[in-house]
Amino acid sequence: MEGEFCSSKTSTRNMNTEKRKQGQQQEKKPYKGIRMRKWGKWVAEIREPNKRSRIWLGSYTTPIAAARAYDTAVFYLRGPSARLNFPELIFQDDDLRDMSAASIRKKATEVGARVDALQTALHTSQSQSQSHSESNSTTRSSEKPDLNKYPNPESSDED
To answer: If you write DSSP's letter for every residue of 71-118 in order, what string do you get?
Structure first.
């Protein structure tokens, strides 16, 4: 009787640990095939089929760019049946012939670099437009009066 209780307790503890680990992985890894470095860069790599070696796909500033590089590589390695992060964004204009690891790396890094540049530019333009609109709305209230001048009755705010 006690053995059953201990085993069920242990299995419950193991299930909770697994759920916690899965939750942590989902927080850290929003997409398959990528990971985040300590200093904030996102990297992508993929294991070659039937080999122990990996194909390095690059280091990117955004997780989306790293995931797109991974998608490109996995598509060329495993074909249309591959599980992708963004299946709707893979276009099949190239034929799927056997490609070397170097050519797969080249195609994946091209895609990743292009997406990274677009994502970075998009993020930069959004943050600039936000800061510009915020500065316009707060300019009037944050203007400091010159205390060395006499007030000008024409420009007084008392209407």
So the answer is: HHHHHHHHGGGS--S-GGG----S------HHHHHHHHHHHHHHHHHH
